[in-house]
Amino acid sequence: MDKGFGGYVKKVAVLMGVLLFFSAYTGTATASQSTANSPVPFLSESPRATPAPSAPAAKPVIPKNWYPKGYVTFSNDDTLAYKADTRGDPCYSACRFVNLTVISQYGCPNGFFVTVNFLTTSGVVVDDSIDSISSVRAMQKAKLQFITYDNSGRKYQVTDADCYSSS
Fold first, then answer.
1. Range in 76-80, 114-118, 143-147 with the lowest mean pLDDT
2. Does the structure show a pLDDT above 80 at 62?
3. Mean pLDDT for the chain overall
4. Up-side HSE of residue 142: CA atoms within 13 Å toward CB?
5. In whole angstroms, what is the distance from residue 103 CA to residue 81 CA?
């Protein structure tokens, strides 16, 4: 066993040799990374190749009329379609409402939402309503209900629909 200051210098020299060998072997140290005052090179993480950015996924070609007869696509998402129904009376004449049966061509595993405005007969927006579903499979139908207690809301207008993305 080495004793004294000489043994310490020998251990440091061996350690430096191992570090220099490792850095030369892995290519992790460069001359620009070491300082003039330091005998030990500065080691950094070896550079890793970054994957090339992937091209955005192409939107699938949507065949016309993929949805059942009587349905229409949403203006902002042609992979969702709906059919409106105002039959029934969920509020015993105390509200205005519309039911939408929605179908998704490719499914919405993370769910979707729809927003509806209620308007007066002259087209003034008096209320809105939002409904959502937590998940649907491809071509599965889901019923959503939109209600306003403002009795001047005689008409409805579908304003937004979105199938939540997985990201």
1. 76-80
2. no
3. 78
4. 23
5. 5
Cα gap 133→143, rounded to integer Å: 9
- Tokens representing 152? 């001047």
Query: What's residue 94's pLDDT?
Result: 85
Residue 126 burial (C-beta neighbours within 10 Å; 0-12, 13-18, 19+) = middle
- Tracing tokens 């729809």 back to the chain, one arrives at 114
Is the CA virtual torsion 94, 96, 101, 105 positive or negative?
negative
Query: Cα–Cα distance between 20 and 130 in angstroms, integer?
Result: 65
- From first CA to last CA, the distance across the chain in angstroms is 60
